[in-house]
Amino acid sequence: MTGATVTGIILAGGQSSRMGFNKAFATFGGERLIDHATGIFRKLFNQTIIVTLAPLDYLDIDATVVTDIFPGAAALGGIYTGLFHAKEEKSFVLSCDMPFIQESFISYMIEASSRYDIVVPRRPDGLQPLHAIYSRRQLHSIERNIKAGNLKITSFYGSSNIRIIPPDIIDTFDSEGLMFMNINNRDDLVRSGGLPPVDRRGRNGASTPQR
Questions:
Q1: Whole-model pTM?
Q2: pLDDT of 163
Q3: Which class in CATH covers the domain with range 6-191?
């Protein structure tokens, strides 16, 4: 198993106010996003953690399911929670709404992480902090920023030993530029060829958005 010394963390959040349903259960190629991600994670990691506001939604998934230690701290709080529960020193962190992740590129990142606290890809439009590797050594810095109300993910990068993977290397894995695409709204879902989850009455999408 590649990356047996790295934990896999999926930030799954919960109901999306912009989409009216949990993005983790949107379907691509007949497979839910969360199942696609955990399927790849099982090949790479001994431990998979799902950080979510709705833990009961994931009872059918073979993973450690945890809820935020710092509620309301957005994705940075999810990273903190995942690292806190991780068995390994380093973890690969992924947002659940990326349908085009690649096992080979994640493996490359793991191999590149041995001497670094953070490994993060950089596209021309910026860093990809929700497709990155983090060390548990960052827990104190992340907690300090959360308590100060600074929830920007990259806010703790400055004090870290960081490896940035440049666009030319990324392009060798992702020539079409799709790997970091995420689903922010229903238009993104349709453009990428996905479908909303089917509710218990057999209709696409959630019937009543959670508040």
A1: 0.87
A2: 97
A3: alpha beta
